User: Which sequence fits this backbone?
């Protein structure tokens, strides 16, 4: 197979792997059945989701070390096995606490191990179009709920909630392990035919290992901006449906439809912002994202009460920008620190996602409990967007050679 078509095939495989890994985004479908089965409240039914995201993010730095030693195929296989095992074992859980450990910790670690592998493969095979290739690869994660939520909902109705964990686990384990077989890096120094880096790209190219990276100020700027971008986006994912019914005053059916639509925005943000990062550099793309986050939050805060149109516009932008950050950050990691140690480096950068996830979930929940409405979260997000914009403007600069 020609190298050009092979590398695009690897992007397609990475996208499908991420659809499998991203089934966590459909977890809300499990919550009501679990609340009824275990006689628990909404806070407890959300525990597996929050722990899963935290374990996912914490496993990423270790996964980078594994990938450096084992390569992307074996590392993805291990991740796929743990993902499937987490779902399968969860089917035997007698209560939500055990479910949280089995599904949240084991499944989350599995996703954390596998997630970075297709991204690293895309980054190395596409020195010319890294943002687009990475964006399409991670796009599967954002698109996953559209594919997996209807399947999970159907299975719950047919075989029950706990058997659904079992069936999904078996399917996910088999799919991820099989799809990992073609994953490999190009030979050292490979580049696309008739492509050469521009003089600016060549002069800017650096290859830093993790210890060298953490000494650079642009690493901390990237980590902080990534955290803020994820916090705003993951908060939006968590409250999209209840905000729609309680603030925008739409029906639960329309709110469910809206969440499916927003998932498309989440997917689209990845290749769109990835391509923009290729063309206009991480700093300018990050600034654009924070302007959009600020505008969307302002729209929802000042005009969202009872306004269906502004609800769709505001949340659509926030989901688009979350998808965007999941392409901006890995592309910026490649641009700032090179591809030689990419897996280890992006694993550390990705811990920002975990901090943003927990912060976003706790922020929206706390504001709702204190004020009785989700509206109060948006002025905080607006302030964070301003901070992110300033940090991006000052700190997201190319790495200086020592």
Assistant:
């Amino acid at each position: 197979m020609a190298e050009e078509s092979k590398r695009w095939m690897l992007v397609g495989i990475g996208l499908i792997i991420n659809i499998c890994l991203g089934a966590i985004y459909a977890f809300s479908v499990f919550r009501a059945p679990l609340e009824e089965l275990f006689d628990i409240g909404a806070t407890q039914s959300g525990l597996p989701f929050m722990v899963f995201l935290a374990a996912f993010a914490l496993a990423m730095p270790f996964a980078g070390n594994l990938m450096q030693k084992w390569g992307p195929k074996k590392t993805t296989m291990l991740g796929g096995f743990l993902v499937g095992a987490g779902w399968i074992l969860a089917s035997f859980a007698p209560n939500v606490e055990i479910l949280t450990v089995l599904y949240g910790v084991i499944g989350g670690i599995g996703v954390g191990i596998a997630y970075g592998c297709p991204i690293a493969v895309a980054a190395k095979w596409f020195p010319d179009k890294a943002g687009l290739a990475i964006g399409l690869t991670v796009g599967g994660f954002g698109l996953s709920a559209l594919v997996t939520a209807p399947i999970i909902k159907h299975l719950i109705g047919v075989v029950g909630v706990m058997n659904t964990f079992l069936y999904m686990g078996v399917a996910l384990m088999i799919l991820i392990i099989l799809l990992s077989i073609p994953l490999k890096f190009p030979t050292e120094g490979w580049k696309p035919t008739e492509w050469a880096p521009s003089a600016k790209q060549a002069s800017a190219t650096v290859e830093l290992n993790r210890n060298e990276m953490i000494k650079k100020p642009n690493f901390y700027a990237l980590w902080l901006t990534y955290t803020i971008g994820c916090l705003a986006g993951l908060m939006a994912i968590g409250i999209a449906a209840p905000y729609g019914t309680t603030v925008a005053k739409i029906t639960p059916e329309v709110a469910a439809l809206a969440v499916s639509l927003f998932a498309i925005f989440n997917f689209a943000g990845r290749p769109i912002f990835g391509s923009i990062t290729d063309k206009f550099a991480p700093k300018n793309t990050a600034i654009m994202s924070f302007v959009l986050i600020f505008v969307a939050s302002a729209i929802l805060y000042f005009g969202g009460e009872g306004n269906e149109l502004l609800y769709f516009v505001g949340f659509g932008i926030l989901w688009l920008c979350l998808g965007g950050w999941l392409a901006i950050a890995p592309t910026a990691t490649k641009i700032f620190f090179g591809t030689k140690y990419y897996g280890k480096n992006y694993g550390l950068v990705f811990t920002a996602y975990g901090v943003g996830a927990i912060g976003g979930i706790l922020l929206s929940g706390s504001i709702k409990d204190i004020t009785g409405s989700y509206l109060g979260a948006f002025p905080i997000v607006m302030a964070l967007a301003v901070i992110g914009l300033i940090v991006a403007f000052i700190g997201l600069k190319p790495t200086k050679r020592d």
Observations:
- The two ends are 41 Å apart (CA to CA).
- The longest helix spans residues 252-303.
